[in-house]
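Protein modeling request. Please complete all fields; requests missing the sequence field cannot be processed.
Requester role: graduate student
Desired output: 3D structure, token encoding
Chains: 1
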Amino acid sequence: MTPRDLTIIRGLAARVAEIAALPAQAEKRDMWKRLNALRPVRPMVLIDEIPWHEMDVDGFLQGQCEDPLLRGIEGRLRRTLYRWEHLRADMVVEPYIELPRAIESSGFGITKNEDVAVTDKNNWIVGHHYKPQIEDDEDIEKLVVPTLSEDTALSARHSEMAHEALGGILDVRMTGMYVYSTLWDTLVEWLGPENVLMDVLDRPEFLEKAMDRYVTVFERMIDQAEDKNLLDDGLTVSHCSYSYTYEDEFPRHKPGEKVSALNCWTDATAQLFGSISAEDHDRLEFQYIKRICARFGRVYYGCCEPLHDRMHLVRKLPNVRKVSCSPWCNIDIASENIHGDYVAVGKPNPAWVAQESFDTDMIAADLRRSRDACARNSTNLEYILKDISTVKYKPQRIWEWSDIAMRVAQGG
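Delivered output (412 residues):
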């Protein structure tokens, strides 16, 4: 760690620490806790999955540190400061940084084989064409329980370096595993999306067998994560939404105990199945994923698939607290069916910051429609603008979206 690296890190950390100490952080933290306890003050607003390669306007986001670990910390600090300046919405700035523990997985025995289509070499979002790796019953048996492990020496080294670099200005929190229970998203990569949709008609029993096998090995992976104490109930985010530490009622582990999945959040979804019947959706997803949901203390269910007419299926799942309401969702029906039993995670259409034109009136009208529908039905609401693949290299668009959303959330 060079003196120059330390000067950069500590300068940025001091600015973040100053923001983290503001009274606004406690106020927003409390508002998120009230929403997650189904007693909201108002709809809350966050922006995530940002196209950072398009965000820089003055060089501030450009990394300067030489050490790779410190360069990663620097990036986190710079993005936090950028978001606070331009995309604040209802974000909370904590007085620490999070670094991942050195946890590895050997995988499930099958890897995806794909071709990608790139339209912007600077963008990590690309098109995918998956080549099937599971085609018959024999291939299903290739799914195995992954071996999880942690390089504790490396975790300790990273923690020590981060603490030294930050010099006590910010704390360091080494984070454990977050379990994404998005099983069909992965199965689609192994089976091919066209094949899955055809097999819903032609080979539903084959898809059931594949899902049953995957859930079985997935449960054993969770067992292993618990046994090796790799899980983490002190995280902040589940699927782009504040959760975990933003809920006082959440059951956390006691000191000296291992972290159980029941102390943690997970998110689950079967995005491809938004285009099939509710009966098939239930048969292929809900009857299986409920086994995983039962393992976790809180569940965020759904992603891009419209669930407004599937809430009777979501209600079969244990421990659900948040339900996705994607741009393809009918918010009037969804808010009526969700009522006050869950948090409706409203996802405004990210295409509106990606089009050739930028229509602020349309954005505000859509946000108000969601707000008013949820208010009529006593439904708890948060807005999460996510899946933002581009803003046409005009970051001011997303800055303005943040301002509009906050005005609407506050009653404007």
